[in-house]
Design a protein that fits this description.
Length: about 425
Amino acid sequence: MKKFVTFLALTVLSLGAFSGCGIDDSFQQEPDLESHKGILIEQSSSDDIKGTHLLETDGDNLALRSLALNLSSAKYLNNEVEVMGVFNEEDEVLEVTGISVMDVLSEDSEKVEFVEYSNTDLGLKLKYYSDWEVQNEVGSADFVAPSADEFEPDMVSISRYTFSYQPKVDEEGNSDTPLGAFMKQTFPLIENSEDYMRLVGPQKHDAIVMETDGADVDYYLFRNNQIYTVSFISSEDYVAGNKKIFNEMLAEFVFTGYTVDDPEEAVVEEDVIGFTGEEQEEEEVFAMLTSFPQSDLKMDPFESLSYEFQGLYPASWYYAGGTSAGQGVLRHYGFSDESIAEDNGNELIGLDLISGSAPSGKIHSYAGRDFTVLNENGLYTVYTSVAGKTYRVFGDDEHGDLILSIAASIDQISESGLED
């Protein structure tokens, strides 16, 4: 017992002697948090106070500002709120880190909703907060954050431009991707594009993300010979809360069908004159896709040496080939995002090598090849012929762009390899 007391005493003495200060002095004191209640209002442009907003309390006004929260949001403004933060004695401003609504006094606050935005020109939809201003232009859309009159607002900007992509297969048979080719051309000093890849939205679109100056960030997505840029652009009066809203908007980003202003840009031949509304919509979608029908998924090659053809399919998917009981089917391949069942019951896209020729239907010409397209009761089917052989690629119409991509990738294997 005596030895233990002696050891404890020596330990305390050595702790006190170490660095020449007490134990409490080795810890930095946290800043004091304050909380205040009152009505939140915007600061007048004529005020010389260093804040951005004021909290009206009993007989006094407290200056506020925040880099983390959007105090100009309609859900807070002109309502009774409780704010929490650290008081900056030099500027005499409360740096707000937290806020909650105590009583709704403003009718405008009830109108702020996370609403859907759809743009058929750009072919996308997402959600945004209704107190943001939407500015639509041809080929672009901007979402401007609310802010006090004398401050520059943050914004989210979406635009697109043409990026012509032709897939390349290396010596090992691996195909590049549209975004990989874009990265190599636009950011040639970056060696590994995979480090910058992210998944965007519920459809998990591949995207390249590039952080720029300050809080700014750009997301690049590929779709049918188009690069889409989705950017957060901060202002000199940047509000970090707006960056969080940008991430919420990205989480809702989805590609949809879009209108085609000039269908003549795509080489399309029709064997049917006059379309119904549904046929016209499908025609516009095909014209869009055949600018060069490429999925935004990474594609890998598959081949059939016995039937001398090769094609591309999603790298993360599975495929299996075999015989088929279907009439006129020489060889069948199934593709799915999970291992193919023995009965092919879980395949998402099928590919058949068939005897005979394609049935009658709408014929589209692209890159020197004809594609016959049928869309019946949600089943999307594309027929194409290569070197005298007829192929049929089919699946649910929700996979239409991928079905076209697979059909367009089919090519003959010669004795010297894949035909150019």
